[in-house]
Amino acid sequence: MKKLTALLTLVLAVVLVTRSHAQLSKDEAKEWKNKAKEYKKNPAELKQLVEDKQNAEAEVSTLKTEKTSLESRLSDQNAKVSELQDDLSKLRSDLASARAELNAAKASPSSASSAGGKMVDGVVFKVQVGAFRNKDLSKYFDNNENFSGENEDGMQKITLGQFRDYWEADTFKKYLREMGVKDAWIVPYKDGTRVDIKDVLEGVIASDGPSDSE
After folding, report:
1. φ and ψ at 144, to 5 degrees?
2. Neighbours of 112 (CB within 10 A)
3. Which strand (E) or helix (H) includes residue 188?
4. CA angle 140, 91, 93 (to 5 degrees)
5. pLDDT tens, position by position, 175-193
């Protein structure tokens, strides 16, 4: 205990002398000398003071580390928000384009249809959006050239659009999938009859990967 008291007193004395030369005024130096005497009489209080200072410094260091970590996480979250905003903007743009394509398809003279949505002669492509059992939507087909369907095996298969060009139909299919119609796929018709896509587009499909009818 005596060694600890002597050591603490020595540390305090060095600090006081250093500060007295560096920045303390005469009155301040006198005041701290008196405090040094008090601490010499009560080394436990001096020890507690030093430990409190060390604990405070450790806590400050911990808080600085936590602050740095929080700033890093906030930066990551801001980057993610920015990325999501960009994705949302792109989806809105794609949706607007899809609507424009759909409106253009309805008004386009190249869409191979006649009154009542019936197909004309030749090859055309539609995009099937679903097959439903016990659902009859045929009353909506009249006067809607680009909305039609057919019954097969007790299912009513609903299609949108009519295109002479396969790649226009493919673009329309992709827009529908981006809008959430995951089962959208291209179906070809020849002279009003539904056929396998390989029968009308074998060369293109072979060079472009698996058939869209799969």
Report:
1. -125, 90
2. 20
3. strand 185-190
4. 85
5. 999 998 888 889 898 888 8
Rg over alpha carbons for the chain, rounded to the nearest Å, is 41
Which residue stretches of 42-179 are H helix? 43-107, 166-178
Say how far residue 34 (Cα) sits from the centre of its chain: 66
Q: Give the DSSP H or E segment for 156.
A: strand 155-163
Q: Give the pLDDT of residue 91.
A: 83
Q: Which residues pair with 165 in a beta bridge?
A: none
- DSSP 3-state assignment of 197? helix
Task: List CB contacts of 74: < 8 A, sequence separation 6 or more.
Answer: none
Reading the block at residue 151, the tokens are: 């019954």
CB 117 within 8 Å of CB 159: no
Token output for 54: 């060390």
